[in-house]
Every structure is written in C-alpha cells, then in structure tokens.
Specification:
Distance between the termini: 120 Å
Largest sheet: 5 strands, antiparallel
Oligomer: single chain
CATH class of the largest domain: Alpha Beta
CATH architecture of the largest domain: 2-Layer Sandwich
Shape: elongated
Order of helices and strands: HEEHHEEEHEEHHHEEEHHEHEEHEEHEE
Number of domains: 4
Strand order of the largest sheet: 2-1-5-4-3
CATH topology of the largest domain: Heat Shock Protein 90
Length: about 525
C-alpha cells in the first residue's frame, strides 16, 4: 500500500469509490497473471514437444517434461548448463550453438528451424528438429525440440521400399480395386513388354489369357474380394500376344479402416521353372520306362512259361492232325473243327498275354481319361505276369481278395504297375532272407469310401532310419547296377494321381507291409454296381 493510499484527511465518497476500484483492478490483474502462468506451466507440461529456454549466455533456464523424455535428463540435471551439451558435433562449440541466421540483427531477429542430431543422456544420438526463436535483449531464447526418430525411420523405410520396388525381379503392379493400373516397376516392363505409360490407366485384365480372363471375372475375383488375397499359377499375356507361365499373387491394401482401396499384383515368371519341370518329367518318364523294362526282365521267365503252355497245346493238336493225315486217315470234319477251335482259343490266350505285356511296357503313354476299374483284376493280372518268377524264387503268394469289391477310378495298366512294383519289391526283400518259408500276401478290402490293397511279406522289414526316404526318386538300398530306385516312387506317383495314398509299415512277422488306399467310385456313378 502506497502512502497516497492512507486516508489522512477527509475525503468524499467519490474519491473513495475510485480508490476501491483501483485496488480491485490491481487484484484482478494479479489473479489473471497467476492464471496465465498456471496455463503456461500446464501447456509446457502437457505438450509433446520439448520446450527449452536459454539465456543470453546459452545456459538452460527451463526444461519441460517432453524435453526430459526426449533427452533423458531431468530438469534439475540441465538447468544452468550450456545448451550445447545436448548438441553433438559442430554445434557443441560455444560460438556455434546458434545458427548464423539468428544473428542477422535488425528489429525482428529471425526464427530458424533445423534438423540436427541430439545428444541424449547415456550417449545415445537421435535425430531432432529444433526451432530457435529470434533473440531479444533482456529476454530468454526459446528452443522447441521435436524427436523425429519415427519420421526418419518411416522415411528410411519408404526409401528402402522404393529401392525394392525398382530393383526386385518380380513384376509388381499397383492398381485400384477396379483393376485400373496406377504404377508398375521396371521388372514388370521387362516381363510383359508394357511400359508404365502404356499400361497406366488400363485394367490388369489386358494381362490375362483367355482362360484366366474367364475364371478371374468369376470365382477368383470373388475369392479375392472376400479374403483380400489370392495366389495361383496362371498364363500371362505379353504385349506381343505371347503368353508365359507365372505365379500370380494378389493382395488388397487397406486404408486403416478395413476398407481396401488398392490391390498389389505380383508376377513371378515361371518360364524357367516350367522348362525344368518338363525336363524333369521327361527324365522321370524315361527312367520309369527303364524301370518297367527291368520289371519285364524280372517277369520274363513267367511270361515265357505263360506263352509256352498254349504253344504246347497248339503243337499237340496240329501234330495229331498231321500224324493222321500222313497215314491217310483223315479226321472227321467235326473233329477238325473242334481242334481248330481249340487252337484258336490258345492263340487268343497268347494274344491276350502279348497285349497285356505291351500295355504294361507302354504305360508311360497317354492312357486317356480314368475310368471305373477293378483293383482285384489288377492284382490278378500282375500276379499272373509274376507267378512263374515268384515260384522260381521259392516264394508262395496268397491272395486274400475281397469279393464284390467296389471299383476305383483309374487304368488297369497303371494299377497293375502298382502291384508289380510292390510285389517285386517284396520279392527282392525276401531274396535277402535265408529261410525256407517265404511268403507274400496280397489282400484287398473296402472301408469308409475307400478300396485298399495291402502287399505284405515276411522279410527283413524297413529300417527306421530309411523309412522317410523310401518313396524318394532314385533312392535305393540295392548295390550299384541292381536298381535305380524308382519303383516305390512310381507307386506313390500313380496312387497320388488317382487321389489316394500309400503308406509303409513293419508287420508282426518281421517283414514290411505296403498299403494303398484309393477312393471308391460311388455306386450311383457306376450304374449302381
């Protein structure tokens, strides 16, 4: 209270009122100032940006919580310290802690924003953006610091993504959800012949072959819209009209609210892989033919025996008729006709054997569409070819074939090849066993919509260490020159092609059991049979 505020002489009510009003205004101004300071402190504490005030000597006067989080120092640790302690490199020199632009002079010194590196407690260095206010005499300078680590990382990832987009070997197309092309990478141009200018604005449908165009507009696109992704091998059309095999991958890109806005199309050229697969297929077919020829060699003794029997009957019948003819005692016409019919029947039998063997030898050729066939007939046919050879090896074969077995969809020749390979594999295993009783059991049955075949022997069984590899191509335990290791691989390939599976286990008699399961043809598809 000032001396003038003391009432030392009589005053009027008007003078008193003015003095009271003046005191109230001073009080209100003080309250407003306190509130303003409180708001300032609150803002400094809540802002995400580091706020640092520095005096004319470059010493820190205030350090808000955001600055503490950015640099790791508490306000008490840095207050009164030089601001350059937070700035590594050239900025740590006393005369360089402020950019030159802030010294330009004049009535309105310049505020400057810079991206520099900040020096944190513990030695970590982070990228920061600093805005430094203009300098006014008698006032503090304001530093506004933003941690831009996340932004720099995002920029780095964007640069990396751009480099990947430009250098990756797969063709990439970015398109709208309606298929309109927005951008492509250089690999796409090399792959298809379309430049970005030529393809941009068109739809990706210009790349589809006729077959893909039909399916893509239907089930493929429906699946993609539901799931947000799709992948498959397709034929892609180049600019010049030729096509090439490619792995097509589709992925939807969302806007963060589960609303896809673009899709990414990735094309991987499979031309070389297709050539390699074709070459591998030809090699496997050629090797499979060699394997079948080896099987024919194994069956040759049995085949000779099967053909020799009807030949002996034919010889006996013809020699008998010639004998009576030389003695001028001709046979009655009915007897001659009877003998000729018998000869014809034996010739038909030889013809069936030859056709059977020719069919087996030519299994690698296109056999047409699979049709309902009997697995029991295939077992009987294969054992008929192998019977003599099994007998020579001292092996007894037991057939336990279920009557009325449902048919399966396939080819008789292919199914016989399965049986031949499994039986020959069992025969070779039994050749290693020194025992008098050697037996192979061929058993068929039906269960739960499947038709099953088991070929089991009482040999040495399968080594546990080799069990996982026995179906691999060219894997064999035989000495060099005695096998090429394709028999079981062929079995698995045929069974898989017919939608079935084959497994191998050791049985209670010490030998191995190979089980083949094939889908049974429903009765309604086979005329109710």
């Amino acid at each position: 209270m000032h001396a003038t505020d003391v009432i030392s002489k009589p005053i009027t009510w008007e003078v008193l009122r003015h003095r009271v009003q003046r005191l109230l205004r001073l009080r209100n101004a003080e309250v407003l100032l306190q509130r303003s300071e409180a708001r300032r402190v609150s803002l400094l504490n809540q802002t995400l940006e580091g706020i640092i005030t520095v005096d004319e000597e470059g010493r820190i006067q205030s350090f808000n919580p955001a600055a503490e989080r950015i640099f790791g120092y508490s306000a008490a640790e840095v207050t009164g310290k030089p601001i350059r302690m937070l700035m590594p490199g050239a900025y740590r020199q006393r005369e360089c802690y402020l950019p030159r632009e802030t010294y330009l002079g004049g009535d309105a010194p310049t505020s400057v924003t810079r991206e520099i590196t900040g020096y944190c407690k513990g030695g970590a260095v982070i990228p920061v953006e600093v805005t430094i206010s203009g300098f006014y005499a008698g006032e503090q300078r304001l530093f506004i610091v933003r941690d831009i680590s996340a932004r720099k990382e995002a920029e780095r990832r964007l640069r990396l993504a751009a480099k990947v987009f430009e250098s990756i070997l797969e063709g990439i197309v970015v398109a709208g959800m309606d298929g309109t092309v927005q951008s492509v990478n250089p690999a796409f141009t090399v792959m298809t012949g379309y430049t970005e200018e030529e393809i941009k604005g068109n739809t990706v449908a210009v790349l589809w072959s006729e077959e893909l165009r039909a399916s893509f507009s239907g089930k493929v696109w429906d699946w993609f819209r539901r799931s947000g992704h799709w992948q498959g091998e397709v034929q892609v059309r180049r600019k010049n009209g030729t096509t090439f095999p490619a792995l097509l991958s589709l992925a939807a890109i969302g806007n963060g609210r589960d609303q896809p806005t673009e899709c990414v199309v990735v094309l991987t050229d499979l031309s070389e892989q297709a050539k390699l697969r074709e070459e591998q297929r030809r090699l496997q077919e050629h090797t499979a033919k060699l394997e079948r020829l080896a099987s024919l060699g194994t069956m040759s003794a049995g085949i000779a025996h099967e053909i020799n029997q009807p030949l002996n009957v034919i010889r006996i019948l013809t020699d008998g008729m010639l004998f009576w003819h030389k003695r001028e005692r001709p046979l009655e016409p009915d007897k001659v006709i009877e003998n000729l019919e018998k000869i014809s029947a034996q010739i038909s039998r030889i013809d069936e054997i030859i056709k059977h063997m020719r069919s087996f030898a030519n299994i690698g050729r296109d056999m047409g569409k699979p049709e309902p066939v009997s697995l029991n007939d295939a077992v009987n046919g294969a054992l008929g070819m192998l019977g003599r050879q099994l007998a020579v090896h001292g092996i007894v074969v037991r057939r336990m074939l279920a009557p009325g077995l449902p048919v399966v969809r396939g080819h008789t020749g292919r199914l016989e090849e399965i049986v031949v390979n499994l039986v020959v594999n069992a025969m070779q295993a039994l050749d290693k066993v020194n025992r008098t009783e050697k037996e192979i059991v061929c058993r068929t049955w039906a269960e739960a919509g499947k038709v099953c075949l088991a070929v089991e022997d009482n040999g040495t069984g399968i080594d546990a260490a080799l069990k996982e590899r026995i179906f691999e191509p060219f894997f064999t335990t035989k000495p060099p020159g005695e096998g090429i290791g394709l028999g079981l691989c062929i079995v698995q390939s045929i069974v898989t092609r017919y939608g079935g599976r084959v497994t191998a286990t050791n049985n209670a008699r010490g030998g191995a059991t190979f089980t083949v399961e094939l889908p049974a043809v429903p009765q309604e598809e086979n005329g109710g049979k």
